């Protein structure tokens, strides 16, 4: 089982944002389905060691264990809250967790499978880091990544537009906001090298969410957290009410619930 370390000076947007694992898991099944779809494409029955980059509250660990019953699994996340939640809900001697930044991450040895589900987008320079992440993969191993590709959706556009207005803008450092991800062809080029086979695709999910202001509940637990964390009261409450109203108009509630289209990008790099 490879041990894990990272340079202590590394930082990312996820580590600088206070996380609420319970809120993040409100729509756990919807957030986990893309991970299942990603891993289904991996195959690789002989995997013995797995590293999950950005493991969050550990909701993906049962899936990894079910698919690779004998593997040693290491979950890595920069959020202390996420690691604490993951450790408290995991009872498996072959699963361990490390609080560390993905950048500067090093293993004592390499892993048969390195996975990352909706985490790399929190690194503004994640495209530059991808070749280093691929180096964590053993010969014959696989890197499998899923990241959101919905930054042009109303949920994110409304968030960016509202955060750029006063009285909100003066409280928000634009450098702390989540930046749009690239396109699949860009990631394919980033990982291209001799001896590496690349597979890539995208899927647009249509989640049916229940409850009051469900799209706000969804995005406030992830992409909107840097904005919400930066705003003091009573400005924050004013922002929340304006944002909720805009989201209700963009995502009207129907009898079945509120439909949230969500585009996700998938790419897999296999070493020969």
TrEMBL record:
Every Methyltransferase domain range: 50-141
One GO biological process term: methylation
Keywords for the protein's UniProt record, in alphabetical order: Methyltransferase, Transferase
Domain of life: Bacteria
CDD domains: AdoMet_MTases
Entry GO MF terms: trans-aconitate 2-methyltransferase activity
PANTHER family: TRANS-ACONITATE 2-METHYLTRANSFERASE, TRANS-ACONITATE 2-METHYLTRANSFERASE-RELATED
UniProt name for this protein: Methyltransferase domain-containing protein
Source lineage: Bacteria, Bacillati, Actinomycetota, Actinomycetes, Micrococcales
């Amino acid at each position: 089982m490879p041990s894990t370390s990272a340079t202590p000076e590394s930082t990312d947007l996820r580590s600088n944002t206070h996380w609420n694992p319970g809120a993040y898991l409100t729509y756990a099944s919807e957030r986990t389905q893309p991970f299942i779809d990603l891993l289904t494409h991996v195959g690789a029955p002989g995997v013995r060691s797995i590293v999950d980059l950005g493991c969050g509250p550990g909701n993906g660990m049962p899936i990894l264990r079910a698919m690779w019953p004998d593997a040693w699994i290491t979950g890595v996340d920069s959020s202390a809250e996420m690691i604490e939640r993951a450790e408290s809900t995991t009872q498996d001697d072959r699963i361990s967790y490390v609080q560390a930044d993905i950048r500067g991450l090093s293993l004592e040895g390499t892993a048969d499978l390195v996975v990352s589900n909706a985490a790399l987008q929190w690194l503004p320079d994640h495209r530059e880091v991808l070749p280093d992440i691929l180096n964590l993969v053993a010969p014959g191993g696989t890197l499998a990544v899923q990241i959101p590709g919905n930054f042009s959706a109303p949920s994110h556009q409304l968030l960016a537009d509202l955060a750029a207005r006063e009285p909100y803008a003066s409280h928000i450092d634009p450098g702390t906001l989540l930046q749009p991800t690239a396109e699949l062809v860009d990631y394919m080029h980033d990982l291209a090298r001799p001896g590496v086979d690349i597979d890539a695709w995208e899927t647009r999910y249509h989640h049916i969410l229940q409850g009051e202001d469900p799209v706000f509940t969804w995005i406030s637990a992830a992409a909107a957290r840097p904005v919400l964390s930066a705003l003091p009261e009573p400005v924050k409450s004013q922002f929340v009410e304006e944002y909720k109203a805009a989201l209700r108009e963009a995502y009207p509630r129907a009898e079945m619930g509120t439909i949230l289209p969500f585009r996700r990008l998938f790419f897999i790099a296999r070493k020969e």
